[in-house]
Amino acid sequence: MSSLMHSFLSKPSKSYLVGHLLSLLQVPLTLNQLHQIHSQIIINQLSKTHHLIANFLTSCLNLHHLHYVSLVYNQNPTLSLSNFMIRASIQCGSLGNAVFFFRRMLSSEMCPDNNTFLMVLRACAASNGIVVGQSIHNTILKMGFDYDGHLQTTILDMYAKNRDLGSAHKVFERMRERDVVACNAMIMAYSRHGHVELALEIFKGMNKKNNVSWNAMIDCYCKSGNLEAARQIFDRNPARDMVSWNTMITGYCKSGILALAKELFDAMDSRNSITWNTMISGYVHTGDFTDAFSLFHQMQVERVRVNEVTLVSLLSACAHLGALDMGKWIHAYMRHKRFKFDVVLGTALVDMYLKCGSLDIALQIFKELPHKNIFSWNSIISGLAMHGYGLEAIDAFNRMRECNIKPDGVTFVGLLSGCSHSGLVDEGKGLFSLMRDEYGIEPKVEHYGCMVDLLARAGLLKEAIVLIETMPVEPNPVVLGSILHACEVHKDIELSERMIKRLLELDPRDGGNYVFLSNVYACRKNWDDVDAIRKEMRDRGVRKTPGCSLIEVSNAVHEFTVGDSSHPQFAQISAFLDEINWGVREIGYEAKTEPVLHDIEEEEKESAVRYHSEKLAIAFGLMSTEPGSVIRVVKNLRICSDCHVFIKFLSKKYKREIIVRDKSRFHHFRYGACSCKDYW
Ligand code: ZN
Ligand code: ZN
Q1: Model pLDDT for residues 454-473, shown as the tens digit of each residue
Q2: 3-state secondary structure 308-356
Q3: Is the pLDDT of residue 203 over 60?
Q4: Of 60-69, 111-120, 211-220, 600-609, where does mean pLDDT reach its minimum?
Q5: Span from the CA of 658 to the centroid of ligand 2 (angstroms)
Q6: Ligand 2 centroid – CA 643 distance (Å)
Q7: Residue 63 — φ and ψ, nearest 5°?
Q8: CATH number of 443-540
Q9: How far is the CA of 677 from the centre of ligand 2 (A)?
Q10: pLDDT tens digits, residue range 221-249?
Q11: Domain-by-domain residue ranges, the chain?
């Protein structure tokens, strides 16, 4: 500021001063600096220079110094200054401030103009401001502004976006002239509420339709799931624009009809970033990651600008696949292209590293995130939990609370599962009551599931049963399954019998129930019962999800499914697996055969366990990567106890670190031991 003070000593002209002060206001300032500028404004009698005052007040608003703003504003309130302040407030995302200035206008008997109303109404539409919106509507009626068609359409839209379809409809009915814009707004309102017929009625009754009308109708059918009707409107649309194509492609992608989406995509003359991103995230959501990545490569070949949305989709694909190298490549790409690490992109990156097993990098990036929201915290908390760091997850939770971020149901699922993986019984109980008492979050079945799991693992079976019997929500197979698992570990046959009966009462079409049941029978070698269950599963068409493991080798993700030999190198892999089987037997490994669900000869059973997908994936990893490098595998189901022992021996014999992410957590195998301490 010393240069500022210096420039005033030489008494420059007024216009020079204004220009100079304006240039100072271009950069973010501290409150103290603003005070200095304000005194210059007063000393030099510039408080009626509208442009300068407006800029000055915007800087004050940016610092959230509302008191100071109203002080200055009150000295010379005009309509244009008021409108300026309302616009600036809305741009800062504060509807409250906008309403504050709006009320000031009314109380100082200044008459708002059309522009004032439009701005505030649009802000109400965008930020759930129905109460404010209603009162503004009343003011408009009182002041006699309601004949204005543009204003009426905006009111209609405000009601529609605030889910008050009745009021929106009333406004529409009362309109003297329903132009294209009003009809379009009403179609979109009906569409948002799923009233396809009503939307179609308006659409058909329109004398003139513009592109927005056609696109709104396509979108309406897509949202209702009637893709064929949407496609008919799309084909009939006389002036298809980019939005029409993108809307239709989005519709196909959301319904999982990727082939038709791709057909349209290929038929387009030109595409924008929305087109590319829709297609990529469509592939990611249907689990078609290879196509998602090949489209990303095509994007680069065609020199299409990749944006944050693309990267978030791809990072979530990497997280799902456990494709660390691919994720790292995207991270490097982001740095190279100088992407801003905002909260969304930063959280996606943290999540990718967590789910690919790189906890250290994830923690580092998380620490460096300039802004963290609930998603960032939830991601790090459940990440720590999955890696078996229950206490650290609680620690993160406490820091989150210090930052005044209110936890939600997801936060507590992360925390409770962390307690369960780390055997933190007291901490888990404390968090469970904190969730209800302090945050008013009603526990859902997944929270009860974590609690049951926590108690059962710790051997507190009776307490777990009491919880199951008193919980207000119906227990699902996952909840009962964790009790059964504990019964196996703690050898409580009688209890497991009771749980089995309970499982049978649950939805008989749920494949999960059958699997748990047959597992229990298999453990007791009741092969007749296992057979009966398998027969029933076949008869009812219920299928057990096949075990599937993924491993990333030289930038490609390889998939292994139990009982599937379609991998091009399958013969070599299974020969190599036999070899390492002998290798680990030499140092004490013995195959456990309980988890096999069939009455077959011991030797055959052993070979069924031998070809579990994670073993195939790890064997492939061992034969195709550098000695000493880390092997990372992602499995869709819980790792079985035989594979767990096998991998422990493997990590010792081959001196490799092996990281397996199964359905519930991470297992870091090193020197013959696992990070889960055999507690999973
Ligand atoms: Zn297994
Ligand atoms: Zn483990």
Answers
A1: 998 888 888 988 898 888 88
A2: HHHHHHHHHHHHHHCCHHHHHHHHHHHHHCCCCCCHHHHHHHHHHHHHC
A3: yes
A4: 600-609
A5: 10
A6: 10
A7: -90, 5
A8: 1.25.40.10
A9: 6
A10: 999 999 999 999 999 998 889 999 999 99
A11: 178-270, 443-540, 548-674
